[in-house]
Amino acid sequence: MVRPDDRTFEHAADHFRAQARCFTPPPAPDDALFLQAEALYYDRFELRAPGAHSYAAHLLAAATDFGPFLLLTSASGLLDLRLQSYNGAARLYEGLLVRYPRTRHRPIALYRLSWAYPNVTVSGLPRDREEVLRELRTAPAPWPVLAAEAGRVELRSQDAAMAWSILPGAGQIYTGEVGNGAVRLSLALLSAAALVVPIVYMAKHDELSWQATALSIVGLIGLQISYTTAYQDAQRAVFEHNERAEEAFAATHPLAPCPEGAR
Predict the structure, then answer these.
(1) What is the pLDDT of residues 113-154, one digit of tens each?
(2) Nearest alpha carbon to residue 126 among 93, 173, 155
(3) Distance, C-alpha 72 to centroid of its chain
(4) Which of 132, 150, 200, 240 has the fewest Cβ atoms within 10 angstroms?
(5) Given this model, what pLDDT does residue 71 score?
(6) Domain locations in the chain as residue ranges
(7) Phi, psi at residue 238, to the nearest 5°?
(8) DSSP alpha helices (H): ranges in the chain?
(9) How far apart are CA 177 and CA 156, in angstroms?
């Protein structure tokens, strides 16, 4: 969360407020911080499926454990940027609530957090979606009704996707992408078989075969790639599932998050 004594954040906030003076009238400090959070929350863009170069980088990284190749696998960037946007927005909304507890944006910030929290990947934030919704239910009408209805929407969480991804493909199945998950699970099982079967064969026959050893190495590399790519793709599947759910909710609640009487 943004600490009250965070000078770097204060410097950035001062710069944002200075730019906001171009508008008449300039926004109040809590308005400026709310707009910063909104900008991050809606920093969304289309993610494209990884190309051959991405899988080649994963293959080289898994086969060699060479630092630059490992860097290439994490340098695709767009997925991380989407995830960090949710992390940053949650920090700013929580910072707004701490710094300006009486801000008029409090209900809207809580409402945004109720959708953002399942997508965050950082630890240390002060609460979770259920706590946010409980607090929103204590806000003036019509927020309690909106909070109750939003709470009935089933979202997926990054933490659960990470736990499910101990089995490659299970994270995708958890988010409803059954076909995607089944393919990834099948590839992981084939890789595991390619890793284990040659070892068992050589142990059983008490002999060392370069063909069996090579097949086992290929299986190990395939298993590493399966785990890495399946976990990253599960992260993508979580926030895309949640964003679809949020859009569907907004379609049936066109005034959210500014219902009559909440402005």
Answers:
(1) 999 999 999 888 889 999 999 999 999 888 999 999 999 999
(2) 93
(3) 20
(4) 200
(5) 42
(6) 1-41+79-152, 156-263
(7) -65, -55
(8) 7-20, 29-41, 52-64, 67-74, 78-99, 106-116, 129-136, 143-151, 158-164, 170-174, 178-205, 210-252
(9) 12
